[in-house]
Amino acid sequence: MPHLSPVAVSMGDPAGIGPEIILKAWNNWHRREGVPPLIALGDIDAFTATAQALGLPEPRPLPTPTSDAAAALDGLAVFDVGIKLARPVQPGQADPANAACIKAAIETGVRLCLDGQVSGLVTAPIAKSVMYEAGFAFPGHTEFLAELCAQTPVDGPSGPAMMLSAGGLRVVLVTIHEPLARALSLITPQRVEAIARLTDAALRRDFGLARPRLALAGLNPHAGEGGALGQEEIDILDPLAARLRADGINITDAQPPDTLFHAEARAGYDAAICLYHDQGLIPVKTLDFHGGVNITLGLPIVRTSPDHGTAFNIAGQGVARPDSLLAALDQAVKIAECRA
What does each C-alpha distance from 177 to 45, 69, 199, 243 come to in angstroms? Predict the structure, then answer.
């Protein structure tokens, strides 16, 4: 196993469950053997208030993001991002005034990754609507991270693309947060091809697979039933799959989505290319609702996140589970090891 620098976690929205699950994850993580130290990025006051309210081990300030410094602390190591929270945090009540600190935590994580000071970045959930109120100009984390990394070359096809992983299933989305009617217009040969090539390259680089096996989900019931239930498989998907196979990418023709995700089918591929959000997210969350991981493909940095939101409705109650964050940490470390 290569020696890895710390893995960083950005704070997310402090009015949500981010600080709580990060503190709980550290309480599990630091007891493990052979893992890199975990450091949090954000305002230590938010973590301290959460720890005190919930009876969790209190965090400690981290002067420099090094393995030795982080490992020596007897609490969660928090690296200050240079911008404090503008207002005290009220659990469950997001405040756009604190968006600058939330954004700075993400920016700091990317900078530390690009500088090689941390081996990967795990991002705790943000509330996009709150960020928009403060002038955030990106649809979400993924697009913001891509912008921050835009000037750094990528080894292979560039992204970003969203992979979701849980329960032994990996899915990669062709369209993400789009209304379904609009998503249909975005399922073009060019877009599907870009996602398939990116997925193939990422499975080789980030997961160590010498010859990845891709399954392509159809759009229509029964993958169009030979054209009786839709033409997209005949006109777009199957011809594209044939061209990709001619270029050495191991991908199926469009498969009926309703038979693609049971255990026997999953054994036949390493990742499924799904055409719209719910086609991929429903099977992932059905297989492991609490352990899903969001992985961004095609960036020069390692980035994962828990596959859930801010959960404002349970913030501050001490009931949030860190399972998905721990799974995201595990996945970030495995990808960093593959790249190393």
Answer: 33, 39, 19, 28
Give strand pairing partners of 7.
38, 120
pLDDT tens string 23-38: 999 999 999 999 999 9
Conformational region of residue 105, where left means phi above 0, alpha means psi within -120 to 50, and beta covers everything else: alpha
Task: Return the SS3 of 192.
Answer: helix
Closest to 159 (Cα-Cα) out of 177, 178, 172: 172
Give the whole-number percent of the chain exceeding pLDDT 90.
88
Q: Any idea how long the chain is?
A: 340
Closest CA to 207 of 283, 275, 289, 295: 295
Tell me, what amino acid is at 272?
A
Q: Determine the pLDDT at residue 155.
A: 81
Q: pLDDT at position 2, please?
A: 66
Of 333, 285, 286, 331, the C-alpha closest to 308 is 285
Read out DSSP for 178-224?
A: --HHHHHHH--HHHHHHHHHHHHHHHHHHH--SS-EEEEE-SSGGGG
- Is pTM, for the whole model, over 0.70? yes
Give the bridge partners for 61, in sequence order. 78
List, for residues 219-261, the tens digit of each pLDDT value: 999 999 999 999 999 999 999 999 999 999 999 999 999 999 9
As a whole number of angstroms, the distance between CA 147 and CA 150 comes to 5
Provide the H-helix boundaries in the chain.
Answer: 18-29, 44-54, 67-72, 99-114, 128-133, 141-148, 180-186, 189-207, 232, 238-246, 263-266, 277-287, 323-339
Which stretches of 257-300 are DSSP H helices?
A: 263-266, 277-287
Weakly modelled stretches of the chain, pLDDT under 50: none
**Residue 123 DSSP symbol:** E
Show the domains of the chain with their CATH numbers. 1-153+303-340 (3.40.718.10), 155-298 (3.40.718.10)
Residue 121, amino acid: L
